[in-house]
Design a protein that fits this description.
With 314 residues, the chain is α/β, with parallel strands linked by helices. The protein has one domain: 3-Layer(aba) Sandwich (Rossmann fold). It contains ten helices and twelve strands. It has a seven-stranded mixed beta sheet with strand order 8-7-4-9-10-12-11, with helices on both faces. A three-stranded mixed beta sheet has the order 3-5-6. Strands 1-2 form a two-stranded antiparallel sheet. Strand 5 and strand 6 form a beta hairpin. Helix 1 runs parallel beside helix 2. The termini are far apart.
């Protein structure tokens, strides 16, 4: 029996988030994912502040701020708190305190209950703005407002949905992100979820009306996630790929849609080192330094923390 440590709500199986209060539940590999996020946000913000540059961290699927640990009945910091606490970490590390361009954070969350907890746990941090709504609608609006400024700030965007997203993360949303200059994208992709949805393609013309209806719904989801303009090509390839190849082929096809915009794309499976990752973290940038830092961060994760990032701090 699973029990929420925030409100005490109980259910036979562990959910993605508490249906009663909205507390997000950590899953397999969540701790590793957060270590990678933190390992990149810290040096990134330090570099930006050393150069006195305006910069934002945006968490587009922010969740509840804190999350319930996977194997223990305790809280751990979620991605919004990792981002918010980066400011204090940089303040301790930076030598020239006259550089005033601190990181600013924007957190977007669609679940109203999770958003209430997000407000509670990030409300006391400076320069943190919280938005309730679908990131497919809110994120483009936020970027449009930034682009209206005289000097466009640098933006690091983290998108970490449950599965393919609730609602699904649209390829059109990602294109708005990746077409923008001075932007980096860090995205979680559940290839298993992508494959499950794609598996319904074979039922599109089924004589069974229920199967056909479900298949059409899945096709609409797939069209949103892959992009309407690439849907036909993906479907054609899907039926050509052999059963054991589909995970790798689907991942590479998805990545190819990002590589056309970004020269540098890094990808790591979570849990790190698993032959069957639960999901993948995809990092995209146009900046060679950013790529080197992320490569070092992921190498650290693979080597269980034996590598150091100190060389990037100055």
């Amino acid at each position: 029996m699973w029990r929420c440590i925030n409100c005490g709500f109980a259910t036979p199986e562990r959910p993605s988030f508490c249906k009663n209060c909205g507390l997000v539940q950590a899953g397999i590999g969540t701790h590793e994912k957060y270590q990678i996020l933190e390992g990149y946000c810290h040096p990134l913000s330090l570099i930006m502040r050393n150069n006195n540059l305006d910069h934002y961290f945006i968490d587009a699927c922010a969740g509840s701020g804190r999350v319930q640990a996977y194997h223990k009945n305790e809280y751990i910091d979620g991605s919004p708190l990792i981002m918010a606490k980066t400011r204090d970490w940089v303040e301790e590390k930076i030598k020239d305190k006259t550089k005033t361009k601190h990181v600013k954070c924007i957190f977007i969350e669609v679940n109203s209950k999770a958003h209430i907890l997000l407000e509670k746990w990030t409300g006391n941090f400076p320069d943190c703005r919280r938005i309730w709504g679908d990131c497919n609608q809110m994120l483009p609006s936020v970027l449009n407002n930034m682009d209206s400024e005289r000097w466009k700030p640098f933006v690091f965007i983290y998108i970490d949905p449950f599965g393919l997203g609730e609602p699904p993360i649209m390829m059109e949303t990602l294109r708005r992100v990746i077409e923008r200059d001075y932007t980096e994208l860090f995205l979680q992709l559940s290839v298993d979820a992508l494959i499950r949805v794609s598996g319904w393609l074979k039922h599109v013309d089924s004589p069974d009306s229920e199967l056909r209806k479900q298949a059409q719904t899945c096709c609409e989801t797939l069209k949103v996630v892959i992009g309407a303009d690439r849907m036909g090509e993906f479907c054609e390839n899907w039926f050509k790929w052999q059963e054991g190849q589909r995970e790798e082929k689907a991942l590479q096809y998805y990545l190819s849609g990002l590589c056309s915009y970004f020269p540098h794309v890094e990808c790591i499976g979570i849990p790190v080192g698993s032959k069957r990752p639960v999901y993948y973290l995809i990092y995209t940038t146009r900046n060679q330094t950013g790529r080197k830092i992320m490569q070092q961060v992921t190498m650290t994760a693979k080597r269980k923390g034996t590598e150091s990032l100190e060389k990037w701090f100055n």
